Amino acid sequence: MSETGEEHTALFTFGDTQLDHEGAQAAPDTALSAGGQGLAGIGRQLLEAPGSEARQALMREVIQRAGFDSLCYCHIVRIGEFVSRAAWFDTYSPPGWAERYGREQFFQIDPRVAYACRFEWPFAWDLESMFSTPMAERCEAFARRFSHAAKQAGLQSGVSVGLATGNPLEHCIITLSSTQTGRGWIADTTLGEAYAIGVGLHTFIEARARSLLPSLTADTLNDVQRSILRFVTQGLSDREMAESLSMSAHNVGYHLRQLKKIYNAQNRVQLAYIAGCILGD
Fold first, then answer.
1. 57 and 185 both lie in a single domain
2. Quick one: 125 and 187 in the same domain?
C-alpha cells in the first residue's frame, strides 16, 4: 500500500505500435487545422507517416529539437483530487517510468496533475521548486520519494500541458522533460514548441486510440443501474432505494458494488461525484 492511503489508480500503458490496430481512425482535417499551421504540421506528419517506425523517428527528432529528452502522454479520469484511471502512452517515456509512477501512486502527490487539470496552457516546472510549499510530514516523505525517482529517470525539468477532452472527469496531460536542472533554459519559444508537440500528438492519438482511452459514460447501464446511480446523487439509503425499486436491500448493495467496479469508484462519495457528471439530468 502506498502512503497515499487505500485509493489506487487503475493504470494501463500502450505504445505507438498499438495505434496501427485494425479500425483505427484518421484524425479529421478540421482537428488538424484548428490550432494553426504549427499544430497542424505535427499532427498531419504523424498521420501521413507510413508506420510506427517512421512516426517514432519523427517524434524523437521533434522532441530533441525542442530541447527535451522524453515525453509522457497520459489520459486520466479524475474524481475530485483522486485519479481513478489512467491510460499512459509510454513510447517516449523513460523505460519503466510509467509503471513506477503508477505503482507508487505518484498521481496523488505530483502537483503538475492538479495544475494541468485546471489550466489549459503550457507551464514550466523543475524538481528543485516543485515541492516548495509546506506540507505534512508524511507528504514530505512521499514528495522526496517522488523527486528521487524522477531524478533517477532523468526528469529534472520541463513543460507540462493540460488539454480538455469534452468530459469534465477526463483530462489529458502531456509532459516533456529534460535532464537539465532548473527552468532557466525554458524560454517562451520552448513553451510554444512544447504546446505544439503536445496538441499535435494528442490530436493523432485521440483519433487512433479512442477505444484504448478511459471514458466514463452511462450509455451502457441498464435501467436499474441508471436509477440507482441517480438515487446515489440524491443521497438515498440502500433501504430507500430498495423500496423505490421494489427489490431487496441486498440486491441494491450488489448493484452498487457493480457500479463502483464499473467506474473504479473507491466509495459512495466518489460514485455520487461521477454520477453527477455523467447522467446529465
1. yes
2. yes
Question: What does the alpha-carbon distance between residue 100 and residue 2 come to, in Å, rounded to a whole number?
Answer: 12
Three-state SS at 132: coil
In a domain, 153, yes or no: yes
Residue that the C-alpha cell 489529458 belongs to: 172
Q: What is the pTM assigned to this prediction?
A: 0.80
Cell of 235: 443521497
pLDDT in tens, 187-228: 999 999 999 999 999 989 987 877 666 667 888 899 999 999
- CB-based contact 156:146 (threshold 8 Å): no
Same domain membership, residue 183 and residue 92: yes
pLDDT in tens, 221-270: 999 999 999 999 999 999 999 999 999 999 999 999 999 988 888 889 88
> Cell 485519479 identifies what position?
83
C-alpha cell of residue 41: 504540421
Residue 81 C-beta-side C-alpha neighbours within 13 Å? 7
Q: Are residues 48 and 185 in the same domain?
A: yes
122 and 171 within one domain: yes
Angle (nearest 5°) at CA 145 between 139 and 151: 135
Cβ(125)–Cβ(113) under 8 Å?
no
* Closest to 82 measured CA to CA, from 164, 6, 166: 6
Residues 194 and 242 in one domain: no
3-state secondary structure of 221: coil
